[in-house]
Structures are given as C-alpha cells and as structure tokens.
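Here is an idea for our session: we take a single protein and study its fold together. Start from the sequence, derive the backbone structure tokens from it, and show both lines together. Once you have written the record down, we can walk along the chain together:
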Amino acid sequence: MLSSEEKLSRLRSLYDLSRESDEFEDGVSFQEDMEALVLGNWAILAYDEMDDLALSFHVESHPIAVAKLTRFLVEHDVPFVLYEAFRVNDQDEIVFESDLPAQE
C-alpha cells in the first residue's frame, strides 16, 4: 500500500511534468486534499483503492483531448488504469466505479 505522502509525491511529480507540456490546454490543478489531479473540467487522475493511478474522463470529453492525455501518459511511461466513472463521497474521497465485472 502506498502512503498518502507517496501518492502526493507521485501526483506532484506528474503535475510538474504536465505543467511543462502543451497537452494540457485546459490546465491542470493539483488537489492535495483530495489526492488528485484535475484536468480542466473533463478528467481526473487519482489513486484507486488498489493503489493504481486511475484515470477517468467526463462523458462529454473531447476525443482529441482524451487522445493527447493518454498519449502523454504512455510516452512518459506513466502506468494507469482507466475507469468509466467516478464520484466524490461524503468524506470528499474520490471513488472510482466501473460497469465491468470485477476481475479476480
């Protein structure tokens, strides 16, 4: 399990890397209290309950923006998992959700 400090450190490194890139035209904000990177108003990067870097897009995200972001992550060897949806629970924690059956 990653500690909160490790997650924040990794997200901060990714945030610094993203600030040097033109791929994030809508901007990136580092939400330390939620342990997440918010990309414009269309995507979020945070760690899931399995300590994988999770990526989720808004349903109306522009396909070119989605392609640029995923290409950026792949080109910089940033491993991630893709989720169909996320929500913020009553404790202001990000909960990733999938309509796919759980894999064992």
